[in-house]
Amino acid sequence: MDNQVPPRKVPNFCSIRYGIALLLLLCNVIVMSQRVCMSLTMIAMVNSTEPHGLSNTSTKEPQDNIKKKKRQLKLWSLEHFFGTFTPIPTHHGTCCYNPGQLIFFKYESQERISVCCSTKNPVYNWSTEIQGIMLSSIFYGILISQIPAGYLSGIYSLKKMVGSALLLSSLFTLLIPLAAEFGEALVIICRVIQGLFQGIALTTQQVVWIKWAPPLEQVRLTSLSLSGLLLGPCVVLLITGFICDSLGWPMVFYIFGACGCALSLLWLVLFYEDPKDHPCISKSEKEYITSALAQQVSSSAPSLPIKAVLKSPPLWVISLCNFAFFWANSFLSLYIPMFINSKFHINVKENGLLSSLPHLFAWIFAILAGHMADVFLSRNILSLLTIRKLFTLLGLLLPALFSLCLLYLSSSFHGTMIFLILANATGSFCMGGILINVLDIAPRYYGFLKGFTNVIGLTGGLVASTVTGVILSQDQDSPWLKIFFMMVANNVISLIFYLIFAKAEIQDWAKETQNTYL
Question: Which Gene Ontology BP terms does the record give (predicted)?
Fold first, then answer.
């Protein structure tokens, strides 16, 4: 792969292969938006004035009961509640209006008791543990689907698998507001099923590049498409606060669900699995792709040598680093809004704006990392193994260093935001390292092994989300210190093993000489 040179120059950004990368970028933006939006809507969904740990109850009540209680209660002014409120003076006292909500308070025995009416923003009494389980439950579905999706991607149509998975994920996103009315258990079930289909979409889409990405553009095209996973949280956090504030939190799920349905149909219309079958591809681009890929050796139906795979140190260190990467990425994606809220106590709209910044810079860094890695390779500046180790080093070590700076050197608002942005953004350098390394060592089994490494990685994301929720609920003194230290330890330990055992050449168990084109 190192010595392959494209036969001639062809269009890049105006080409079909880059169009596919942009289409996958949009798919990943929607997938991540559907996954992450609950981390911010949770602030509006949960009643911070009620004692947690009770059974699932919404504070919605019939209008007749509300009118009756309005006459009976001595209203008490609101001290704090998530969202933006406007005081409304009444002859009973003061109530506060949050779009779609009227919240009345009485003062009795030094306790604050809320009686709410919500036609647009139902509020639930979910404990911190339940919130953590809801946020992490989607990873159970993603985890279960990884290896089967990787295996089936070599058998069934990628076009249908990606399109149908995105469509079904979007439909279950639309159902979440309704599920919340019936209890937290149904929300968790919806999130798990949603994760199943998201896992299928995320794993199978990466197999697309086996036939569409010339070797010297693999990192660039892969990082461009996968960067949507980083842009998605930025988009959702940027606009979710405004949607919650103006339309109510259920509309967040309706909007992202509807966008996903539309995009899945667009994928089914525009995507073709093989460059030779695409009706709009130019002759020069088709020849460029096929001639570049003709130098790669692959068989049409390879049998996986399980024992050799399980004994492969390069594969295991890639998996270990995936564990650390997904741990950090999942924690930062899901809990940045809560971290910012705990530090600055701001409303949901401002929280969304600030929480989106780390993801925006992570997306920019991901595109730069992919471009830099391909430039180093095509110009023979560094060997392939050195490139993979360099970008993995930057993607795991820099977030650890900036996380320590966040804990000990950020005494001001601006310092906290700068280190939070850098800790999140620099992790994107892994796009040029561990996240593409499987394709280097075993291109024949890329779909299956990518699913395997994703299982290990997503286990890290699942554990990170669950453990973070538990720590936040049980440790009232310094929970964020413990959480960030666990992330730093994971990154450093994984990086040490990767630098020792990583490889970038095709492994003996992945070699064959039967055919010249997949």
Answer: monoatomic anion transport; sodium-dependent phosphate transport; urate metabolic process; urate transport
* pTM (2 d.p.): 0.72
DSSP string, 68-108: HHHHH---------SS--EEEE-SS-EEEEETTEEEEEEEE
**Nearby residues of 90 by Cβ (< 8 Å), 6 or more positions away:** 75
Place of tokens 């992450």: 36
Edge-to-edge, what's the strand order for the sheet holding 86-89? 86-89, 94-98, 101-108, 111-118
Structure tokens at 516: 């010249």
160 falls within a domain = yes
CATH assignment at residue 506: 1.20.1250.20
Count of domains for the chain: 2
Residues 243, 251: contact at Cβ < 8 Å?
yes
Residues in CB range of 7: below 8 A, 6 or more apart = 287, 288, 291, 292
Look at residues 270, 298, 326 and tell me which one is the last residue of a structural domain.
298
Same structural domain for residues 461 and 356?
A: yes
CB atoms within 10 A of CB 306: 9
Same domain, 271 and 329: no
Residue 84 lies in a domain: no
Residue 58: phi and psi, rounded to 5, are: -90, 150
Would you state the pLDDT for residue 89? 37
Which residue in 117, 121, 128 sits closest to 51, CA to CA? 128
Could you list the beta-strand ranges (E) of 101-181: 101-108, 111-118
Consecutive 10-residue averages of pLDDT for the chain (518 residues)? 49 80 93 86 73 48 43 33 33 36 36 40 83 84 86 85 94 94 92 93 86 83 86 82 86 94 94 87 86 62 79 94 91 76 73 80 90 89 93 94 85 84 91 90 85 88 82 79 90 95 90 52
* pLDDT for the residue numbered 513: 52
Same domain, 254 and 371: no
